[in-house]
Amino acid sequence: MNAFENKSYLKDFGLSLFFIMLLVFSSCRTVQEVEIRERMDDGYYQNHVQSDLVRQQIKESFNTVRRIQSNVSYRTYQFYVDDMPFESQLQDVNFADVAAESSVDNHSTAGTAIVLSQQRGRVALLSAAHTVSFPDTIWHYGDGITVAGDQQVEAVSVRENINQFVFTDDGIEMLEFILSDPRRDLAVMRSQASIGSDANLMPLNVTIGDFERLDWSDMIYAMGYPRGVKMVTQGTASRSEHPIRRLVMDISINRGFSGGAVFAVRSDGSGLEWVGMITSAMGEQETYLAPEVQHDDEYNPDLPYEGTVYVRTASRIHYGITNAVDVEQIRDFLSENIDDLRARGVSVPDI
Question: What's the CATH number for 52-293+307-343?
Answer without folding.
Answer: 2.40.10.120
